[in-house]
C-alpha cells in the first residue's frame, strides 16, 4: 500500500494505491488511549488514503471484544460468531480421548469421538482446548455419568481467569455450556469427579463459533 502508481495484480482483486502510514492518529476507547497491535503483538499504525483513515480490523476487534479470523480459502474476514460451528474434535489430544464405540456412545447415540474419563476414583478430570483467539463462543456439551458433577469450570489458561462455573447432574443428560471465549488462546476445562462418577464430552457436537 506504500507503492506509487496504479494497476491491478493479474488474477486478483488487489489494486495498487498510494497510501500513508499515519503516526499522527491517536486511538482511544472509552476515553482511554490504546495501541493497535497485530495478532503477534506488534504495534501497527492507521493508514490514510484519499482523505480517509483506515484502521486495522484485528486491532479494532480486539479492543471491542469481538473475535476476528481470516479464511484464506474464501478471502473472508469473519467478525463475531462464525456462521457455522467448528467441532473441538480437530487436533484434540488427551489420555481420555477415544474413538471406541463402547465409550463414544451415550444414551444410544454414537458420537464417534469423545473425551470419556471413567477412571473410577475421586479425582479432578481436565483437558485443554486451543481456540487461539479465533472464536467468540464455545458451546461445550458435557454429561455426568453415575454421579453428579458439583464443581465444573472453564478457565482462560493464560490469564488464570474463570470464564464459567457450573454443576452437571446425571438427570441433565448432555448439558450444553456456553462460554464467551473472545480473545482467548488456551482453555482449561476441569471437573471434580466422585469415585463412582465419570465425565462424557462428545467432541463432534461440542464446537467453537
User: So what's the CATH class of the largest domain?
Assistant: Mainly Beta
Q: What is the CATH homology-level superfamily of the largest domain?
A: Galactose-binding domain-like
- Largest sheet features: 7 strands, antiparallel
Look at the helices and sheets and give the structural class: mainly beta
Uncertain segments are: 1-8
Question: Would you kindly provide a written description of the structure presented here, covering whatever features stand out?
Answer:
- It contains 2 helices and 22 strands.
- The model is unreliable at 1-8 (pLDDT under 50).
- It is 6% helix and 43% strand.
- It folds into 2 domains: 7-64, no CATH class; 86-208, Sandwich (Jelly Rolls).
- With 209 residues, it is mainly beta.
- Strands 10, 11, 14, 16, 19, 21 and 22 form a 7-stranded antiparallel beta sheet that branches. It has a 4-stranded antiparallel beta sheet with strand order 15-20-17-18, with no helix packed on it. It has a 3-stranded antiparallel beta sheet with strand order 3-6-7, with no helix packed on it.
- A hairpin with a 4-residue loop joins strand 8 and strand 9 (76-79).
Summarize the structure.
The protein has helices at 57-64, 101-104; strands at 7-8, 15-16, 20-21, 27-29, 32-34, 47-49, 52-54, 68-71, 76-79, 86-87, 97-98, 105-106, 109-110, 114-117, 123-129, 137-145, 149-156, 161-168, 175-180, 187-193, 198-202, 207-208.
